[in-house]
Fold this sequence. Notes:
The protein starts with a helix and ends in a 16-residue tail after the last helix. The protein has a domain of 64 residues. The chain is built from 3 helices and no strands. The chain is an all-alpha fold.
Amino acid sequence: MVFIRRFIGWLVGAIVVTVAVLLLANRWALGPASPPPQTNPGNTQALGELLYSRFLFPFEITSLVLLVAMVGAIVISKGRTTPRHGEPQAEETR
C-alpha cells in the first residue's frame, strides 16, 4: 500500500515538473498575446483589464497571502482543544 502511494506521488510530481518545463521552454508568458484594442473603457473595466493582464501574478500572490492570513487567524482563534502534557485540565464553567 505504501509503495502504491509513493508511486502515485512520484508520478504526479513528474507530471507537474514536465508541464512546468514545457511551459517555460516554449517561453510561455503571462497575460494576453496581443494588446487589447484601444477603446474608451470605464474605470471598472480598465481596472479589471489591468488586474487580469499586466498585474495578474502580483494579484494572485496577494490573494494567496490573504488566504493564508485568514486560515492563520482561524487557527489562532480556535485555540487548543487538548491540554499539553503536564498541564492541569480546566474545570468547566456553567
